[in-house]
């Protein structure tokens, strides 16, 4: 009887969201860097909504952290600049060839 009274009077433990208040960059650093070196390219052109659903189902503790992380991943999902664009060089063109000689009949 005393055990039942203790169980009934003990306050219920509430779950804590350990991701609450963290920036998306911090969420990525804490949860994703074990497998991914960079956030770039992880969104793979997905919409923020579908990406947040995926993250919520598989990786994040709450819908809010999933939405924040998805928005962050989409924002950095730009393709890397090509080497020619970085150096400012124009693409190489082939040298013009002289016209082909005309064969007489």
Automatic annotation (TrEMBL):
- Taxonomic superkingdom: Bacteria
Q: Where is the composition biased (Low complexity)?
A: 79-91
Q: Which InterPro entries match?
A: Cyt_c-like_dom_sf
Sequence segments annotated as region (Disordered): 79-105
* GO MF term set: electron transfer activity; heme binding
Instruction: State the protein's name.
Output: Cytochrome c domain-containing protein
């Amino acid at each position: 009887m005393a055990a039942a009274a203790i169980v009934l009077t003990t306050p219920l433990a509430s779950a804590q969201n350990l991701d609450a208040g963290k920036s998306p960059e911090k969420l990525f650093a804490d949860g994703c860097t074990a497998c991914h070196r960079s956030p770039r390219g992880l969104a793979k052109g997905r919409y923020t909504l579908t990406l947040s659903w995926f993250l919520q189902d598989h990786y994040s503790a709450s819908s809010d952290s999933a939405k924040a992380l998805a928005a962050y991943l989409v924002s950095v999902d730009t393709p890397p600049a090509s080497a020619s664009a970085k150096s400012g060089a124009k693409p190489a063109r082939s040298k013009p060839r002289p016209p082909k000689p005309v064969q007489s009949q």
